[in-house]
Write a structure and sequence with these properties.
The structure is a homodimer. Chain A is built from 6 helices and 5 strands. The first copy, chain A, has a domain at 42-155: Winged helix-like DNA-binding domain superfamily/Winged helix DNA-binding domain (Arc Repressor Mutant, subunit A, Orthogonal Bundle), CATH 1.10.10. Chain A is mainly α. In chain A, strands 3-5-4 form a 3-stranded antiparallel β-sheet. In chain A, strands 1-2 form a two-stranded antiparallel ribbon. In chain A, a hairpin with a 7-residue loop joins strand 4 and strand 5. At the A-B interface, strand 2, helix 1, helix 5 and helix 6 of A face strand 2, helix 1, helix 5 and helix 6 of B. The structure holds a DNA duplex. Chains A, B: This is Winged helix-turn-helix transcriptional regulator. Chains A, B: It comes from Myceligenerans salitolerans.
Chain lengths: 163, 163
DNA sequence: GTGTGATAGTTGAGATATCAACTATCTTTC
DNA sequence: GAAAGATAGTTGATATCTCAACTATCACAC
């Protein structure tokens, strides 16, 4: 069953699930991005970055921690922060204790932008995700995506290195 | 509960699920993309495009249908196909019956590239998704993402236009 | 058959992302 | 305390994506 040339192909049910995952994902992020573009002054990525900063003490976090939390490459974060700094949403300052380090801090303007965008963002997430699912489905989705995330991270981190 | 200034914020459980969804997704696609980059000659996007073509009669499909199926903008598909055409993976030809239309056809070289990439792709999808979940979880994920995709599409299509 | 609005696809400019190379600092080891 | 390697972050060239404008064709009304 489902094995040709030593390759374990996906069966029909697995195929269907995988396709739904791909397409559903693409449509969801397209719609959420469109909602941000249409109503809000922050893109989804900028918004997420500011949310993460808003949860840090003094609204400040090291670039590397920020990159890890947002699942962004260092380089991409550097460019993104440079642009956002240009708009006055965040500012950079040297990290204390490690002269290589750079802290990223949300400015008051950034905070104001976050507060202004939050209602529209939450409405969109509700409309496109939370309200679309039964409560137990949302819980299941979270649990399942958690497992997927853990597996992906361990592959990226290079855990399970061959002996 | 959870309502301030008329905004329905997410409760803790909803927040957790939403975060898991965001982060799990980002990690998953990062890992799958990395697997393609490392082992295969086709990016995930190129591979998906060729898969879709491979399922069409004569390995040929109209640009617009291809764009819809892959959830890509027309413009993005044009650029992608131009690049892939440059590599000899697909070719363009006029659609018959509608002189505006353009067909995209997978070449033999494209088919060979697809066949060569398929085992590695499927292995990665197994490792990062299918094998990570229980069968019922995979089924649930497919079902849930299907619902999300439908909701997102109806928003994008502009259904439910206000009276 | 002419005008009007929709649809198919492309184009090019500007925005964003990726990748490899680079500087600077830190850490470890001897 | 000097050398070697790891870590933090940036840089710039290139690749890719996005957005609005554009051409061409089609469909439909009149």
């Amino acid at each position: 069953m489902g094995e040709t040339n030593g390759v374990h192909w996906l069966d029909d049910g697995q195929q269907t699930a995988w396709r739904s995952f791909l397409v559903g994902n693409a449509r969801f992020f397209e719609a959420l991005g469109a909602a941000h573009d249409a109503e809000l002054d922050l893109s989804l990525g900028e918004y997420t970055l500011l949310v993460q900063l808003s949860e840090q003490p003094d609204r400040t976090q090291r670039m590397s921690a920020l990159a890890d939390g947002l699942v962004l490459s260092r380089s991409r974060l550097t460019h993104t922060v440079t642009r956002m700094e240009g708009r006055g949403l965040v500012s950079r300052c040297p990290a204390d204790g490690d002269r290589r380090g750079v802290n990223c801090r949300m400015t008051d303007l950034g905070h104001a932008a976050l507060v202004a965008a939050a209602p529209g963002h939450v409405r969109a997430v509700r409309r496109l995700l939370v309200d679309v699912l039964e409560p137990d489905e949302l819980e299941a989705l979270g649990r399942i995506m958690g497992k997927i995330g853990v597996a992906a991270r361990s592959e990226l981190t290079g855990a399970a290195r061959d002996c």
